[in-house]
Amino acid sequence: MSTDATEAATETASDVAIRVLELHKYFGDLEVLKGIDFQVDHGEVVCVIGPSGSGKSTLLRCINRLEESTSGNIFIEGDDITDPDADVDLLRTRIGMVFQQFNLFPHLTVLRNLTVGQTKVLKRSKTEAVQIAEEMLERVGLSEKRDEYPIRLSGGQQQRVAIARSLCMKPDMMLFDEPTSALDPELVGEVLEVMRTLADEGMTMMVVTHEMGFASEVADRVVFMDEGIVVEEGPPAQVLKDPQTERAQKFLKMIDHA
Amino acid sequence: MYVIAALAVVGIALAADWPTIQRNFFQVDVIREMFPELVTIAAKNTAIYTTLSFALGFVLALALALMRMSTVAPFRAFAMIYIELFRGLPALVTLILIGFGLPIAFDGFRLGSTMVRGSVGLAIVAGAYMAETIRAGVEAVPRGQSEAARSLGMSKNRTMFTIILPQAFRIIIPPLTNELVLLIKDTSLFFVLGTTPASKELTKFARDFMVSSRNATPLTVVAIAYLAITLPLTYVVRRMERNAGKSR
Ligand SMILES: Nc1ncnc2c1ncn2[C@@H]1O[C@H](COP(=O)(O)OP(=O)(O)OP(=O)(O)O)[C@@H](O)[C@H]1O
Ligand SMILES: [Mg+2]
After folding, report:
1. Which ligand is nearest to the Cα of residue A227, counting in written order?
2. How far is CA A44 from CA A91, A162, A174, A202, in A?
3. Given CB atoms, is A165 within the 8 Å cutoff of chain B?
4. Which pLDDT tens digit goes with each residue over A48-88?
5. Which of A79, A134, A241, B34 has its CA 20 to 30 Å from the CA of residue B50?
């Protein structure tokens, strides 16, 4: 279970980390999410797959409100975050987000990348923040890069720092949007390894990915999206190996041949 | 082409009355007389006026840029009108407005010394230009930066001040330095505000010296003084721009 079990217990009792109800999202006239319903339980790892443009990123971004959904509800541990009065900044400290392009802060050292959120948002003391940052750097195996600037790191290292940066906030769950898609093939493994460890430790994770190997080995559940709806979901063995819908079959065949 | 140019140079060199030119533009006695006031008053004042105008202008520009990018429509409108207005007017008109327009309109309203009035006037103009520079810098910072910061729970303002602006300032150092060069030259407009012997900047100092010495040499000296500051700055900017281009 989550490392912050005590904190979670004080929240509105709910076994469900993320619950999405009848979610719609328009960009202008373009309907990108057409009524999404699904949930992620505490400690569950859910991989979201699907063709380009199917709305995977948009769904993820609605969950931490980088995008505003048009209608429907999203509950994070029982709290309705689509409520206009919801404290978005507080909500986001509970949800770690990892981007395809890493998005490290280039003007700050690795250590400062890891402490800036802790000190400015969580108001932790500098000593505590540094201690946590060093601990998280150790977890992603980059302790010796502490004082480097991001530009001096490889893509794989940058993404591991980005994961550590999120972990420093001690989030209840983590969202990953194609975390390895911008990486050279030989650097993909080190990032997936870190994510696998996180999953083993019980982190609640929602991962948009094209890494079918990772999905089948690590995911508790795979969600296949196409054209703004969840077409099929279930255990990886079922969705990836024996898809029921024609659309999923077609997509997986295409991925196989890529 | 080169032949014609060379012939022209030779022709001018032969035709020119070198002794007269030397006497009028490079008279050593006059140069000697200009010291030490050239440094202790004129150059010093130019430096002070430039620094003040730049500092004030920058603060103003930052405020305007933030208003320009605000979600509050009246702020945006105000900043937009301000920027268009003061970029559209000659700096001289703004200086006259501050120096004479306001005192006439509001009887006795006087903004301190020449230094203060002039610097405020130039800052008002520079603020308009630099606001657009700052905005361009902010917009040049990739979207992912603010998304990452917001995802850590930073508020909009916190994100702007700790993540976006520090990166934007780095991007706009070259254009800001260009603005500084423009300001150095624009301080020559201070003469319209009237000056005391102690408040003359380089240009006014040269003009008065020209009249009293009935010789054009002071102009040469002051031109060299301006170039001694502006040329290195322009050179540094060009280098920075080239390096920035390389690192992309
Ligand atoms: N800010 C935006 N404005 C307008 N349209 C957008 C915007 N963001 C995404 N879209 C559109 O929404 C649709 C879904 O985009 P989304 O990025 O969610 O897809 P995706 O499944 O993540 O695709 P990919 O695998 O390529 O990342 C696309 O058609 C895209 O063009
Ligand atoms: Mg995407």
Report:
1. 1
2. 19, 21, 11, 7
3. yes
4. 999 999 999 999 999 999 999 999 999 999 899 998 888 99
5. B34
Under 8 Å CB-to-CB from B148, ≥6 apart: which residues?
A: A97, A99, A103, A104, A105, A162, B163
Residue B51 touches partner A, C-beta closer than 8 Å: no
Q: Using an 8 Å Cβ cutoff, are B213 and B30 in contact? A: yes
Q: How far from A72 is each of A21, A31, A63, B156, B170, CA to CA, in Å?
A: 6, 13, 12, 25, 42
Residue B73: pLDDT over 80: yes
Q: Residue ranges of the domains in chain B?
A: 20-247
Closest by Cβ to B144, choosing from A64, A101, A107? A101
> A95 and B155 in contact by Cβ < 8 A?
no
Q: Cα–Cα distance between A107 and B149 in angstroms, integer?
A: 13
The reply to whether B156 touches chain A by the CB within 8 Å rule is: no
Q: What is the pLDDT of residues B90-135, one digit of tens each?
A: 999 998 888 877 777 776 666 677 778 889 999 999 999 999 999 9
| CB neighbour list of residue B114: distance below 8 Å, 6 or more residues apart | B190, B193, B194, B195, B196, B199
| Closest-CA residue to B226 (of B202, B245, B243) | B202
CA atoms A91, A95, A101, A103: torsion sign = positive
**Rounded to two decimals, what is the model's pTM?**
0.87
In 3D space, the residue among A98, A99, A81, A100 whose CA is nearest the CA of residue A90 turns out to be A81
Asked whether the predicted pLDDT for residue A106 surpasses 70, the reply is yes
Alpha carbon nearest to ligand 1 atom 22, residue: A57
**Residue A14's pLDDT is what?**
61
Strand partners, A19: A39, A75
ipTM of the complex: 0.90
Please write down the HEC assignment for all residues of A79-122.
EECCCCCCCHHHHHHCEEEECCCCCCCCCCCHHHHHHHHHHHCC
Closest by Cα among A114, A100, A115, A113 to A210: A100
Ramachandran angles phi, psi of A24, nearest 5° = -120, 145
Enclosing H/E stretch for A177: strand A173-177
Instruction: Please state, rounded to an integer, the average pLDDT across all residues of chain A.
Output: 92
Domain B20-247 sits in CATH 1.10.3720.10: yes
User: How is residue A170 written in tokens?
Assistant: 């001690």
Cα–Cα distance between B57 and B127 in angstroms, integer? 4
**What is the pLDDT confidence band of residue A9, given thresholds at 50, 70 and 90?**
very low
Residues in chain B closer than 8 A to A129 (CB atoms): none
- Contact assignment for B153 to A105 by CB distance below 8 Å: no
For chain B, positions 183-222, list CB contacts with chain A under 8 A. none
Tell me whether B161 touches chain A (CB under 8 Å).
Answer: no
